[in-house]
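Throughout this review, each integer encodes one residue's backbone shape. One record appears below.

===
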Amino acid sequence: MKKDIPVSQIMTKNILRLSLSDSLSTAESLMKKNHIRHLPVVENEHIVGMISLNDLLRISFADAVDANGEEVESAVYDMFTIEQIMTRKVEWISSETSIAEAAKLFLEFEFHALPVVDDDCLTGIVTTTDIIRYFLNEGNE
């Protein structure tokens, strides 16, 4: 198994992203439409935060329905901003970080996604799914 392969070989390069001015409804819509669980928040190509589906679920779960049983997620989302919900202190890796090192970071910090940053700009994202897919495919070769 090739453990020194860089994450650039498996990362997503066409990254969906949010800005601080986007709404939480936009974040949820992007995640659901694209079947993803993490979105980087960027300003001028510089990563300023990450938001996950779990972040959205955490604020919307308790108030998911009103007294009449109607969904009120968007009302809850209107009470918060991306900046209030996102993780601000974001760990990141470079595109030259090995897949094995990324896997170690996922285990050590219990992350599920890591932004890939080169020259101070977001260039990709790698997830635990990418890592698992890589190791499963390596076992079939």
Notes: Residues 116 and 124 are 5 Å apart (CA to CA).
